[in-house]
Amino acid sequence: MDTLFIQEKIQVLDGGFGTELQTVGYNIQFSLLMLWGFLMCRSEILELLFLRDHKTTVNEAQENNTQVLQNNSLWSAAALFDKPELILQIHKRFIEAGSDIILTNSYQACISTMINSRGMTKAAAESSLKVTLMLPSDKAKLVSLAKQAVEEYSVQKKVKIAGSIGPYGVLLNDGSEYNGNYIDELEEQVMVDYHMQQTIPLLQAGLKVIAYETVPSCTEAMAILKAADAIGLSYNFWISFSCKDDEQTNHNESFCKSVEKISYHPNILGIGINCTSPNYITPLLQSVSTSVNSLPFIIYPNSGEIYESDTKKWRNGKCTFPNIEQLMEWKDLGAKVVGGCCRVGAEKIKELSMLVAKLNSGYSVS
């Protein structure tokens, strides 16, 4: 196990890569808001998304949303093909904000999707997945994007890199990774093969730690363990669940029982929770704090904001991330890495980093 990756003090993970790409002006049509509109079938959200850019009706938007999702199926990974320099820029923005760990921009970079949507060969798609770590300096040579960003700040701090892999649902381009419905009809071996296919190129690119993210089901988590065993290479990983409430994963399974089933694996660094409301994190951690023994938690929730359809604006919710009270609770319950997911950009990571520094220096509420 990579004992240097998880440390005694709390470390800061980066935030939502797609969120930060949008902040710097990159047009991600398959945005978080589009996804929520697609899943919720909220006419107000669909109107905001589709009428503004496509001048169509809400009914047409609902009928056509699958095609739009397919056309933008690489999501933030599409920047690899048209704005690769932005990937380096985003990594640097998160490091400057205080991230101790950064994730590669490979969550949505499915090999099968690149083959189907870009007409690439399998070999070319695998190379492109490695390129999510790399920036072409000429047509023959590649330099690791994430490593380049880390090296530029190596004098100030040592930043670690983990490879990001989304669940099987991202391959379907229909938002089903957020409910896990595909689990019910899919053979386990299909998920095993998918995770092997996504993992191997990242390991070949030199990564030693992989983050399997937004996993909606224990069934897929078990498939990930089988994939790791089948790969047979020496690497560590964490599995991060996405949860619909303070007890269940997005596929309506007990988070506590899911963690108990996977925590035995010798190469697992910790248990994650991501793409989840910050309001649910404390009770989720409380439910498993005695079940996973010494495994640390990697926590990177959504911002906690609420979208108001009448004003078409976001507002702070009941529990907005980050705040010091949350972090103290999570630390006491075993969190060793904290970061952010949807709508958590570099500015929020900077806030988070300052709060974590206070906690690591012994801050407590008197």
From TrEMBL:
Its cofactor is Zn(2+). NCBIfam families: PRK09485.1. Keywords: Metal-binding, Methyltransferase, Transferase, Zinc. Pathway: Amino-acid biosynthesis; L-methionine biosynthesis via de novo pathway. One of its GO terms (molecular function) is metal ion binding. GO terms for biological process: methionine biosynthetic process; methylation; S-methylmethionine cycle. Zn(2+) binds at C275, C341, C342. Residues 1-356 form the Hcy-binding domain. This is Hcy-binding domain-containing protein. Gene3D superfamilies: Homocysteine-binding-like domain. InterPro entries: HCY_dom, HCY_dom_sf, Hcy_S-methyltransferase. SUPFAM superfamilies: Homocysteine S-methyltransferase. It holds the Pfam family S-methyl_trans.
